[in-house]
Design a protein that fits this description.
Oligomer: single chain
Largest sheet: 2 strands, antiparallel
InterPro entries: Spore_coat_CotJA
Number of helices: 2
Structural class: alpha+beta
Distance between the termini: 34 Å
Protein name: Spore coat associated protein CotJA
Shape: elongated
Strand content: 5-15%
Pfam families: CotJA
Radius of gyration: 18 Å
Length: 76
């Protein structure tokens, strides 16, 4: 399955005084997976493009930090 979210398991030292983070995640931008810009790609309107940060819809990637995702489920 294709996803721009990646994860890896870092080394966890037995002598680390802090609670380890077992899985770390990161986001990769969509332009890494498009070899070249094809003609006639769908475009945002100029006002939408200013908010999205790109003119082409194929290159848009909304970033959500892991902390934002955690807050959505909490009741605070």
């Amino acid at each position: 399955m294709f996803t721009t979210k990646k994860a890896y398991e870092p080394y966890v030292s037995p002598f680390d005084p802090c609670k380890p983070i077992r899985v770390k995640t990161y986001s990769t931008p969509p332009h890494l997976y498009i070899g070249f810009q094809q003609p006639n790609l769908p475009q945002f309107t100029p006002s939408e493009a200013l908010r999205a940060g790109t003119l082409w819809k194929a290159f848009y990637d909304p970033y959500y930090s892991p902390y934002e995702r955690a807050r959505e489920g909490s009741s605070t």
